[in-house]
Every structure is written in C-alpha cells, then in structure tokens.
Amino acid sequence: MRKLVLTLTGIAFSLSLFATGDSLSYLTAKDTIFLKLDEFGYSIFSHQLERGQTMYSLAKFYGIKLDVLYNFNTQLPTDGTVAPGATVNVVIPDSAIVDWKMAWPRKNFVPVFYTVKHGDTFYKVAKTYFGIQPDTLKARIRLANTSLKTGQRIQVGWLSTMGIPEAMQAVNRNTLGLKMLALQQAFNGEKTVKVPRFQNGAAYWQREKKGGTDYYALHRTAPVGSVIQVSNPLRKKTVYAKVIAKIPDQAYGDDIVVVLSPSVAKLLGAKDPKFFVEIKYFEFVKE
C-alpha cells in the first residue's frame, strides 16, 4: 500500500514510501498520513508527484497559493520544470484535521498520525501542535495514560480525500508563505510610484543563528521600511525581505551589498555565510 508521508523538518525520521495518488486524485482511501513538525512549527507533508500531477494542480487541491507552495519548497525550481517523482512539501492547517465523528463516509477520509519526537508531551501534541483538547485526544485514541514515547504514532484525526478549501488555508495561523506573500505584494505595489534599482554582489548572513520567521535585511541605499527582491541565480530562488536598517559602515566590508536574516538566506538555499545575489528595489527620485 502506498503511503503519504507527512514530513516536518528537523526530525531525524526516515520513511521511504509515499502515497502519490494518481493522475486524477492526490489522496485515496488507501493512504495514511504521518505528520511531523518543521523547524518553524508548521504542519507539512511530503507528496511525491506522479505523471499528470503538477505543482499548480497540487496547490489547487490543497487550497494553497502557488507561490506559497514554492516558499515551502525552496529545493525545487520555480520555472515549471518540476518532474514526476519530485517530493513536494505541502502545508496543512490544523482545522483540516477532523474528529472521527466528522469523518463520514469513512471512504472519503484518510487517517492522520503524528510521530512523537523527543521532548514532546501529551499536552504539547494535543493543544500546541493540533489545537485539540487533551481529554478529547486521549478519548479519541483510547490511551490508558498520557505518557508518550519517542517514535510513538498517535492518530490525531482524519483528512478529507477531497482536498482542503482555499478559505481554510487562508486562516492557517502557521502558514509560512503568507508572510512572504505579503512582502511580495508590498514590493509589487511600489512599481507604479517609484524607480527600480538593480544591484549585484555578496550577501552575508549569520549561519549559526536560528532561522525564525522574520524576513528582514540591512541595505546601504534601499529606503528603510521598503521591501527588496533578492535572488540567488545559482539556486534559481527569489524571495523578498523588509529593510529594517542601513548596513553599518564599519561592520561589514564594501563587498557586502546586503545583510540577510537567516530565514531569508535559508529560503534562498544559502550554504555559506557569503553568497552571490541579485537585488531589485524601488526608490523615489528627486527631480
């Protein structure tokens, strides 16, 4: 039986089987979903594309904006060349996971499990991860006690084989891509009133710092408070960041054109503290 494996970054757990559906369906009644959490605390699963499936149709099935889907898959090219067999991370909102009483008829739903990691508590899994009352989850899975073991699989609910409505994704409190989407919209809003500027050079980021979810940058000339577009041509990745301050004159060498937060650098696929980027931003020009 093919299995749909939901993966969360940062957990050392290996599953080799994927439920891929077929050219008509992304989820079938035979699938079982195994959830984990990524480093930001977002619920995602890894789907392996089959022939006839595309990033666009996958995004539509799960109610995700296409650019948001790419934000969760910085390892994939954004030029439409994602081929069958590629693994795609898809975010799901907690509200899409329903209680067994709502999962009817059963043939239209697949079971959703969470794999316990080191440090998890029953309260954290229930309340923090999935927004479920601990007593409700305990009754749902018929646990004698709430002690958890690393690697233990807990069924947290059911997911519809019909996909996820876009409205449900829109209110997902954990959607990483919504922040990036807002920055992109702000950047595009400046096109009609300001003059574009282009720049190439070295970006710097502190690799040892945790990523977080803040998308910010320091720049020498872009207006503070504006949004810049940053591209990594080597990885074919483009993201957006808010300029929160100027680059201090004495803190970095002249070769550094932008200082990025770890979250932005990671989305660009950066491996080294310094890497080449292409920048675009807008500014007013005095007449």
Task: Please characterize this protein's 3D structure.
There is one protein chain. The chain has helices spanning 55-61, 66-71, 122-130, 134-141, 166-170, 176-189, 262-267; strands at residues 4-5, 33-37, 43-48, 87-91, 109-115, 153-160, 195-204, 216-219, 227-232, 237-245, 256-260, 274-283. The longest helix has 14 residues, at 176-189. 19% of the residues lie in helices and 27% in strands. The protein contains seven helices and twelve strands. It is elongated and about 65 Å long. The model is unreliable at 1-18 (pLDDT under 50). The strands form two sheets. Strands 1, 2, 3, 4, 5 and 6 form a six-stranded mixed beta sheet that branches. A six-stranded mixed beta barrel has the order 7-11-8-10-9-12. The chain is α/β, with parallel strands linked by helices and 287 residues long. The chain folds into two domains: 4-174, Membrane-bound Lytic Murein Transglycosylase D, Chain A, CATH 3.10.350; 178-283, Beta Barrel (Barwin-like endoglucanases).
Supply the key terms.
287 residues, alpha/beta, 2 domains, six-stranded mixed barrel, 27% strand
Record field, number of beta strands: 12
Any idea what the CATH superfamily of the largest domain is called?
LysM domain
State the major sheet.
6 strands, mixed
**Structural class by SSE content:** alpha/beta
CATH level 3 topology of the largest domain: Membrane-bound Lytic Murein Transglycosylase D, Chain A
CATH architecture of the largest domain: Roll
